[in-house]
């Protein structure tokens, strides 16, 4: 297995100082099941590449194998571990690049926190879930991802693609951040670990994920996979990760106790619109903890209700709050909860009268909205689409919100009324819908309402 780190920042040979590995030498670090070799295929002032070659001993793997694997009886003898980047690679990174990962550079300490352009090559990376999972994990962190997939067998193309990829990642970050993210995310892609996973792994995840994991849109997926899908450990880790999440300014209790909270008003407005249009099947695309789903379940006219969310943790909360396991069978049959992303085509979203996105779009990076548009308006293509988002102009009304700040820490953008309408008009024209708009909440004559709603019809 090979990991390469390349930079063109001048002088590129500073990479040697950061990694504490001299470009003119081949250096070897011993591991329990093999060894790690670090060398430099290229080392000039214009371009420098550090290569980490992990050489695992198959006999050593068998000798140190532990019980409880999920594979077949001969898995310890027949497996892909010597040939792929797995948790062994994470261990190799931690052993060979420990000083760099911990943010220490004796000779040039100013380099530690400098954002440097890097190109990272991984050969070969196993990804359970394929390319969509790979992109969900790396792209939100700002990486430009290039993927080369492999056939299961070139002589039998009908067998399809394998789960193995050659991956190139490009980003401008401090090296310590790159190494920490690789340390966590390589075994997350593989969804497996070669050693016993206990409570100490939570501490490692908190340490290596500090500064980026808590804001990652699929942090629940990353946490569960990193902790080998051990539910008690994952819940414990997520409680730590999510405990400091900022409460949205608008979701705080209103000053007037007789007024509805804005979020409740949004949900009731959306439900009433669906009732007015005699909708019988609804896909809540970004259902969160299921508040809208509960309102829809109260109305018998909604015969089929789907809740989709990218967060597995939120779906668990929704399932608990909706008390699905206690519902009569006839009611349980009306509701389905699924995990998924609105940036990838999903046939499960097809066939519904209406699609609803309540405060969803602002949680995506704007360049990814094009993918969402195709998923919702071209592939799912319901008769009715209801989308709500915050009105950025109204932010001046929140006294504790500093100028230029967003209402929630996970918002990637917040649009003015004009920006929202410009986007909505383009989408409607492109996909054959008509669209109308309305404010939500107490409306100000100058800045409008705190939130805004677009109703698409075809």
UniProtKB/TrEMBL annotation:
Domain named Methyltransferase type: residues: 284-375
Any one GO MF annotation of this record: RNA binding
Reaction it catalyzes: small RNA 3'-end nucleotide + S-adenosyl-L-methionine = small RNA 3'-end 2'-O-methylnucleotide + S-adenosyl-L-homocysteine + H(+)
GO biological process, one term: RNA methylation
Coiled-coil blocks: none
Lineage top rank: taxon: Bacteria
Enzyme Commission number(s) from the entry: 2.1.1.386
Essential cofactor(s): Mg(2+)
Key words, A-Z: Magnesium, Metal-binding, Methyltransferase, RNA-binding, RNA-mediated gene silencing, S-adenosyl-L-methionine, Transferase
Positions of the Hen1 N-terminal domain: 1-240
Family: Belongs to the methyltransferase superfamily. HEN1 family.
Protein name: Small RNA 2'-O-methyltransferase
